[in-house]
Amino acid sequence: MDSAWLEDFLALVDGGHFSRAAEQRGITQPAFSRRVRALEDWVGGPLFDRDSQPVTLTPAGLRFRPVAEETLRRLYQGREAARAAGRAAAETLRFAATQALSLTFFPPWLRALEARESFSATVHLTAAHMAACEQVMLRGEAQFLLCHHHPAAASFLMSEPFRSLPVGTDHLLPVSAPVPGAATPLFSPSETSGTPVPLLGFSGESGIGRILAATRAVEESGARLGPSFTSHLASVLVAMARDGRGLAWAPMSLVADDLARGTLVRAAGPERDIAIEIRLYRARARQSPPAERLWAAVAGGSGTAGG
Amino acid sequence: MDSAWLEDFLALVDGGHFSRAAEQRGITQPAFSRRVRALEDWVGGPLFDRDSQPVTLTPAGLRFRPVAEETLRRLYQGREAARAAGRAAAETLRFAATQALSLTFFPPWLRALEARESFSATVHLTAAHMAACEQVMLRGEAQFLLCHHHPAAASFLMSEPFRSLPVGTDHLLPVSAPVPGAATPLFSPSETSGTPVPLLGFSGESGIGRILAATRAVEESGARLGPSFTSHLASVLVAMARDGRGLAWAPMSLVADDLARGTLVRAAGPERDIAIEIRLYRARARQSPPAERLWAAVAGGSGTAGG
DNA sequence: GAGGCCAATGCCGATGCGGCATCAGGTGAT
DNA sequence: ATCACCTGATGCCGCATCGGCATTGGCCTC
């Protein structure tokens, strides 16, 4: 059943004459006649009484008329809706970001970018731990991934089908709640007393955890550390540290406020800070125009492209 | 837009694989692939993400899915409804009958026919005056016409494209209200007193009027008659006569009750009665099966066919 | 009875569709 | 790492179908 047949049908109902309706539909009268016949064959009975002038609808045709009208209306309406949905999806910028960056870095970074380049696209952000973010990127569910990067921590994101740009810098540093009333840490890697320092550690899915493991930062701190709690969520570990539950390595972006307010203090000197980058990753394959515009804006505005 | 494309679309949504959906749809995978592509071209954007296994819907496809489902449902539903409408119309027996026969003759005649032949078809009856009935037959809006017939009253119904069967006999007779308290007519054609007898006459559209005109019954009655009221409706004239307003020629079928009850009396002796037939007319052209069955039943059960 | 209008039909050429064979990308097993 | 297999896409070809043209046949009007 060709939807053109329905248009033909309505044109004939409207015009009342095969030849006039055919002209309106832009085909010859014989072709038009055959298409009407085809529709009648499909329905299974005559729709028009050709014996009267102008041609009139049979009972079957009378019943079929609203069907044809509604079907066409729904079809064209549906097509428009699908197009709109496709367009909206194409213009949506889909980000993935690790949770730490979603909370602190992403909002002002996006705002600055929007202010500078006046993006109007809608934005979708998937906040997850690093392993989940990588899966999202692999499945193409996000166009961009914002995460921490350290040369020692390998990832397939550094491989051929992906590219990245640096968009900021950060530090990983050990923090702890302060000793009550003082500015000295409750726990510190340099402690040598009997009980091990309780460590608030990252589980394997975490990007920061990978960096810490790769740089052997914990081991090299020289501390006797006992894992007391693990999470893949930096903010959870920070909350635990704030509560005096142990020592945690956290990104500066996440604990700057706490350090300023004194609710957390450095547990080691700045010389032990691990410098890390914040990078924006994308698949090398061509993305949607809005995504490409964003990439160009990031590349042009903030740093040099990297592989 | 071919509705088959919508079926293909839903099959692919369901199956998740081009090759499996193609098999289900009874075509090869390449052809199926092209038809899906054709639908996508028509919609104006991709509906499936072919990179995932099984293939998944894009946002546009997700939006289009209910459209495809509803469109197909409405289309098939509408087709069935149209078929049913056509079938019902084809199985409806459409009669036209003059009003006098609609009221008295038609109901018991149809009941007897149904009892004898066990028809189940629905019946439509158009009751109108003779001229309107003829138009109905000419336009094919009725398959059968039930009316009075007299050889002297010509009609195109006696011409080649029509056939007829006698289904009963009747008489036209002059009637009048009785003289109060007696069984003699208030008005009679044999009256010779000064004032003319008021005539309740048929207008030209009436079949009975034509017969009376053709047989010159009124003139040959020898009465001095003054037209006082005309109608194309026999029952109206009878009601007027019952009210003592004059003399009317009426079919026996219509006034038998009145004569039995004495609310009307004969205004002339039975020797002046005009014998008429009740005939069933049809177009010679082949009619619907139920109509042909009815015709055969009438022809076989009650009389001999006529031209 | 002739002419005009209307829809149906026969015929032909071009377009398009489907099938076959093949290609290309990705995955899993050895 | 390689091969086998499964996925969907594509080039090619034959055939069915569709549309246009010319014509027929029916009906109405003048």
Question: How many discrete domains of chain A?
Answer: 3
Q: Provide the CATH architecture of the largest domain in chain A.
A: 3-Layer(aba) Sandwich
SSE run of chain A: HHHEEHEHHEHEEEHHEHEHEEH
- Estimate percent helicity of chain A: 40-55%
Low-confidence stretches of chain A: 303-307
What value does the Rg of chain A take, in angstroms?
33 Å
Beta-strand residue percentage of chain A:
15-25%
DSSP, total strands of chain A: 11
Fold and architecture overview:
The structure is a homodimer of 307-residue chains. By secondary structure, chain A is α/β, with parallel strands linked by helices. Chain A folds into three domains: 3-89, Orthogonal Bundle (Arc Repressor Mutant, subunit A), CATH 1.10.10.10; 96-168 and 279-302, Periplasmic binding protein-like II (D-Maltodextrin-Binding Protein, domain 2, 3-Layer(aba) Sandwich), CATH 3.40.190.10; 170-275, Periplasmic binding protein-like II (D-Maltodextrin-Binding Protein, domain 2, 3-Layer(aba) Sandwich), CATH 3.40.190. Chain A is built from twelve helices and eleven strands. The first copy, chain A, has helices at 3-15, 18-25, 29-43, 59-90, 99-103, 106-117, 130-138, 207-215, 217-220, 234-242, 252-261, 289-302; strands at 48-49, 56-57, 93-98, 123-128, 144-149, 162-176, 197-202, 225-231, 247-251, 265-266, 274-283. In chain A, strands 3, 4, 5, 6, 7, 8, 9, 10 and 11 form a nine-stranded mixed beta sheet that branches. A two-stranded antiparallel ribbon of chain A has the order 1-2. In chain A, helix 1 packs across helix 3 (29-43) and helix 2 (18-25) crosses helix 3. At the A-B interface, helix 4 of A face helix 4 of B. The structure holds a DNA duplex (30 and 30 nucleotides).
